[in-house]
Amino acid sequence: MAYVGDHGDHLQSFMHDPNQGNPADQVRGACLEVNLTAQAGNPACAGQATVASPYTGFSGTVSQALRPFPQYQNAVVDSVTMSDPFGVYTYEAAQVQAQKRISAGLTMLLNYTWEKTLTNADSEYPLQSNWNGNGNSGALNTYNLKVEKALSQYDIPQRLILSYTYQLPFGKGKPIANEGRVANAVIGGWQIAGVQTYQSGTPLAVTSPGWDSGIFAGALGANSRPNSVAGVNPNGFSGKGFQFGQSQRLNPAAFVQAPNFTFGDAPRALNVREFASHSEDFNFSKQIPMYTDRVTTIFRMEFFNAFNRPGQYTGFDTGVGDGNFGHASNRQNQPRNIQANLRVSF
Question: How far are the Cα atoms of 171, 178, 185 from residue 175, in angstroms, in the given order?
Fold first, then answer.
């Protein structure tokens, strides 16, 4: 048994936009989208202090004028060519390994991991992180990177792998039917083996489609986030019998779209996950006696997904307010496969 802890910081993460507007300016609301020269006559700006032109010849919105560098658009700090060391992560795990070396024909190896990974930077490139994950992406608000730290999109809290081989106790050199060519040819030389894998699903993340920060937040591929409804479980499904196209993995009542010019309070990644995966692969083989050391013949049968586990549901709609919110768009079917082979070595 072992405890494993790991921490990293100053990771290249490509999520910092030094030209994002200040969140304090969001109180101006829709006035942020008004042309700077039209403030005086626009009802959206009524009662607000007039924003002066940042330099002679400026042309643009109030929000653009309030940027740290109003003469520029988004400042893409590309971590491939520039320093952008704002990423952090922590990993903690309890790991258990049990091993039985071959005795009485049995060899077994069991590995179990119980872990938690927190990070604000699943990828150096947020868009790549979004494509690979379940809606996770880069930092939403440059001014508050602390709220970006959440479950990693690759976090798998529990994983169990069991592998083994067992030589059946029959035939030549074994406790049962040790003598006799006929008995050895029929029941001797058999072996069974298997690899069984069970693991938790990865976290989902929710978004707030159509949201406008007003200050160019989330410009580097970050997804908007909705508000969480206090006291409502975001998990929309538990138990068995998930129905493709009918069941919802996420609970629509647990989220509301974030109003424009505010930041939603939902975390970057939820503790609602894709479903756990189970896999069992087995094989049995027989070494056919040829009564000569120069020739070896082995017959093998292999069973992949032996219990015909249903495929994984993927592509969950995570956009709050969407008609298919919480529904899966894809099912990765992995039917049982059986194959046989005969190998002669000489």
Answer: 8, 6, 15
